[in-house]
Design brief:
43% helix
Length: 253
């Protein structure tokens, strides 16, 4: 009975946390909808990105304060994260982008075009200058131009959350092509998360088991720009490194 009551309390807190996330997101996007028609909206992109970062960081602090999700950062302390970098990460859970965008400096990201239909995410993503993900060369040009101008870019090269039972989905080479075109370094962040925390095939609404949940984010290897390294080689090296770290990791943080 005691365990059931404790579980019930964590589940209630879980839904409350997502309710807060959605309410704040809807408020921000309501403002962004009004600003989208403005011809000079691009001038507001830095302010929107900064606002998103503060809100995501605030939600992370809420989760930490309540103990609902224990988030651990490894290798980030005392490190000044550079801009003009392509940050790549594996994608085990629904919360990965939220946590990373709350930490990375002046970051934009590649986002799924389907997110444009989400009223709590789409308008703000457009105002922030995020780049819709896709396979066309125009997407690569747009993203690499942003990185070349000194902005950080967050990419999940799996393209979607990691499939259940898999260490890693095959990586798409778009991130490497962007880095090569922008002559930018690639910085790897390896993410691990407790089972069921917004894993692929699950939305946010089924409360995960176990609760409290956990996430670890590790600042790992960086690949500096090398004109002699091909896109395929860079993609394979990042793929291999993620698999090495995840395979060697313990089941718990």
């Amino acid at each position: 009975m005691k365990r059931r009551l404790q579980r019930g309390g964590w589940v209630a807190l879980y839904y409350l946390s997502w309710l807060l996330f959605g309410a704040v997101g809807l408020a921000l996007n309501a403002v962004c909808v009004l600003l989208l028609p403005w011809p000079r909206r691009a001038a507001l992109a830095p302010a929107v990105r900064a606002t998103i970062r503060r809100l995501f960081d605030g939600w992370l602090r809420w989760l930490h304060a309540t103990g609902l999700i224990r988030v651990s950062w490894h290798g980030f302390d005392g490190v000044t994260l550079p801009q003009g970098v392509v940050y790549v990460a594996n994608h085990p859970s629904l919360t990965d982008a939220t946590f990373l965008l709350g930490r990375l400096p002046a970051a934009i990201c590649l986002f799924k075009p389907a997110l444009m239909r989400n009223p709590a995410l789409g308008p703000a993503a457009l105002m922030a200058g995020y780049v819709p993900a896709g396979s066309g060369l125009g997407i690569v040009r747009a993203a690499s131009a942003q990185v070349a101008r000194g902005r950080s870019l967050l990419v999940f090269p799996e393209g979607t959350r990691t499939s259940p039972g898999q260490v890693l989905n095959p990586l798409r080479a778009g991130f490497a092509l962007i880095a090569v075109r922008a002559r930018a370094p690639v910085q790897l962040v390896v993410v691990r998360a407790s089972p069921g925390l917004g894993a692929r095939g699950r939305g946010w609404w089924p409360a995960p088991t176990p609760l409290p949940a956990w996430v670890t984010l590790t600042l790992d290897r960086q690949w500096t720009y090398d004109p002699g390294r091909t896109v395929a080689e860079l993609t394979a090296q990042v793929d291999r490194r993620i698999r090495e770290v995840l395979t060697a990791a313990n089941d718990r943080p």
